[in-house]
Each structure stands twice: as C-alpha cells, then as structure tokens.
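Workshop exercise sheet. Pairs work together: one partner reads the sequence aloud, the other fills in the structure field after running the prediction. Swap roles for the next sheet.
Pair: D.N. / O.F.
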Amino acid sequence: MYDVIVVGARCAGSPLAMLLARKGHRVLVVDRATFPSDTISTHYIQQSGLSLLKSWGLLDRLVATGVPPIRRLNFSYAGIELGGFADPVDGITEVYAPRRTVLDKILVDAAREAGAEVIEDFTVEELVFDEHGRATGIRGRSGDDSGLTEFRGSFVVGADGRNSKVAELVNADFYDVVPAACFIYYSYFSGVEWGFYHQTDTQHQQIGTWPTNDGMVMCAVMQRRDRFREFRTNAEENFHAVYDAIVPELGQRLRDSGKREEQLRPMLYPDNYRRRSSGPGWALVGDAGYHRDPFTGLGITDAMKYGQLLAERLHEGLSGQRPIDEAVAEYVKLRDEDSQGSYAMTCSISTLELTPYFDAVFRATSMSEGFKRRFFNMLAGGIHGDEFFAVDQLQKLYDEVDFPVEKRILSPR
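Structure field:
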C-alpha cells in the first residue's frame, strides 16, 4: 500500500515523487516510457525553474551534462526588438535548454534515489475506486506482460501529460479553453553556433533557435495552423524558406554550414486549457491539468513549480495537518491564481499577432533599458507578471519614453 501513486515520471511527476519520498512517504511512480526517453518540448528552463533544481540539489547534475549556458535572450516581434537578460535569480545568471533525454533522466534518477519506487514501461489502463468513488489505485500492464497488475494507494496523481489517462478516467472537464493558433516544426542542427533568438515577422511566422546538449542547436519554425497542410507537403524546403524570409543571413548560414542531425518534428499545438485538477483521492499536475502554448517557454518551469506546490499540500494531508482533499483543492486554486496573468499573455501573443495592448507595452518597453530589464526579470520568474503589467508601472513606462498619449493602453480589455 503506497501513500501516493504518481502516473507519469517527467518534469512534474518525478519532482513530486522525489519531494514526497524525501518527506518519508511511500511513493510509486509509473511511466509508459523507459528512460532516457525523448518527448516534444521547448527545452527551455527559466532561472526560477533552475532555482528549483538548485534547491533540490540537481542543478549541478544538469550543468555537468555539458548543456551550454544562455546569457542573452533576443526577441523580435514584428519590428519590436527586445534583447537582454534578467538579473540573477537565487544567484543564477544563465538559463539552459537541455534535451529531454537528459533532463528527464536526471529527475527520474533523483526520485529513485529519494526512495520512490519507479516502474518504467508500464501503461495505466484503469483506476481503482472504493465504494464511495474515491480513487485508491491503478491497474495497468508492463511492456513484457499481457496481464493486468494492480497497485493500491491512498492518493493517485496524474502527471501523464496533455493526453492524460488519469484525467480521462476521472472525467476531468476542461475550462478556460483557448483554441491553439499555430503549429511548429523543429529539429537539431550541428555546424551552427547560435544563441537564443525568437524572431517573428508580419506574415504570422516565427523562427526560434537555442543551443542544447551535444553541441547542437535546436532550430524551430512556427506558422498559423491554416498553413500546416501546405507546409508539410515540402517540410524541408518550407522550413528553410521561413528562415530565409525572416533573417536571410541566418537562413543562408543554416543552408551553408548547418547539418540537420535528426528528423524534422511537427507538432500541431493542442488548445490552451485548464482541467478540473482535484477530486476524491486524485489530482492532476503538469500538462495533465494545465497547458498553454509553448510560445513563452514556461512549461517545464511550471511543471516543476506546481509539482512542488502539490507535494507540499499532499504532505499536509498525509501527515494529518488537514484533510488531504481540502489541501489538494487549495493547490489547484493557488495554481490558477498564480498562472492567470501569464496564461492570458501566452494565449494572446502566441497567435503571432500582437493585440494593440501588447504592441503598445512591448514597443514602449523596447525604448527603455530599465523596463527591458524588468521584462526579462518577468520571463525569468524574478518578478510576477502582475507586477510588470501593473497600471502604475505602465504609466511610468509611457512617461519615461514619452510614448504618444493616444497610443497608451493600460489594460488588455
């Protein structure tokens, strides 16, 4: 009998299991993958996410993999140029974009070392409920075994991604759904030594580059979803054509010296959503309960941050400090409140077209070195988005750069 069973062992599930096991709880983690294992990802980890890894004693392991540090971020959005970096967060002066084969293995190993039992290559097919409808376990199959195996626990957590089986089995309904706007193609290239660039043009297309493990650079292109069918008819050429159109010199260098080391990977973005993320004996964390467009690169950090929040609330319940379902319901409330501003911003700017509000704010920000630093502090997690977009701060920004009065917008509504 386990205290907690976690379904899914990536960026939300393994940290959750590790933290609970370090508190002395008996934890089982299962995942259908075997590790190291790759998955579609932005790779990007904010400084606040790295701060979590540091507090868990795992940041040095990540750095030791040779993933290169990134100390400057460059954004271009339809003529608005924002380049710079954040102030240190917990002494951390860089960000990283590790391969998921690297990061997830570190997290899985840490969960095991903390005392959690980890079973790989295990597919969950059913949840077990008691006579009152409370989740009390899972049933599933190992890859080498055709029979169902059952595990019982006091609490079940779905950390199994946007196609969560746990969410399906508890009929977790969606809310705050915003339709996805774009698709992405990406791959890994050697022979190019580029930093972090996000460049978007007026034709609703974007390129992104950031260095990752093994001397490679992840290169991506993004376009609106209605162009996906046409794009994939000649994905290789269309991929390069987007680079050629947005930054011709980078496009030429990619053709001349870049070597694609892996296949091009497409992804039609799923909708932005939240799911009902708690109920009798169960909870959802990571993309299982909350997903937003990868545009702002917050997914990994959010998964770890809210995984830690859920671990704290589960510990309160398991240790008898308060009813466990009450504690976990508070986790969902805090998650939604904390992420509301960045969720709204991500849903808006990921359409590859700025609203008048964001156009005004970002255009004015590009004219102020101090507010550019605040912008990057927000991206790093050093300040909350509500602080950056506060009306008094925007008024101060507009006054500082003498922004035209008729173009000043203080609210997204």
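Discussion prompt: The chain has three domains: 2-43+99-176+272-344, 182-268, 356-407. What would you look at next?
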